[in-house]
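Today's session is about reading a structure prediction critically. Students often jump straight to the picture, but the first step is always the sequence itself: look for stretches that repeat, for charged clusters, for runs of hydrophobic residues. Only then move on to the predicted structure, which in these notes is written as discrete structure tokens rather than atom positions. Here is the chain we will use throughout the hour.
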Amino acid sequence: MKKIENYWIDFQNEKVTIMQDFADKAGNEMNSKENETLTALKEKYSTYGFIYKKSVSTTKNTHKDLTYKRIETFITRFDPAATKKLQDETRYYKTITPKWNSKVRSWFIREYPEYQEVEDRNDIPDLQRIAAIRAEKKIAEQPAKILTFDETAAAS
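Below is the predicted structure for this chain, in token form.
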């Protein structure tokens, strides 16, 4: 999926999601940059479905229940080898800022973005859960390659 500020193009599902504010500006001003962009999108992706979406609140905190204790428990259970790394990160951030907890939390979310999904899956051993989820996401994020005529002829 290609994400741009005012619209998203989902090549896999053949959908273009456009923010409603962007579409409103495009409709109100015929010679605006928004109108040109929207017109170009409709021409270029004429076979795709178009979805108009209202603005989403940016204040939603999906990690509000993520405390240092939960981070520590997660790493101890799912990736014991990283316990030293957590201690090093904590020690480092404590020396540079009084808001070390939020810095450690940001580091944890960057390192383990799938932490919320891992706890729900009990079908495989702990250490393999993270690897399995990362592998699934990596496969899903890879765009399909479109072969040219020359590549198709060379493959056969």
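Discussion point for the tutorial: Helices lie at 20-28, 33-44, 68-78, 83-96, 100-111, 115-118, 126-141, 149-155.
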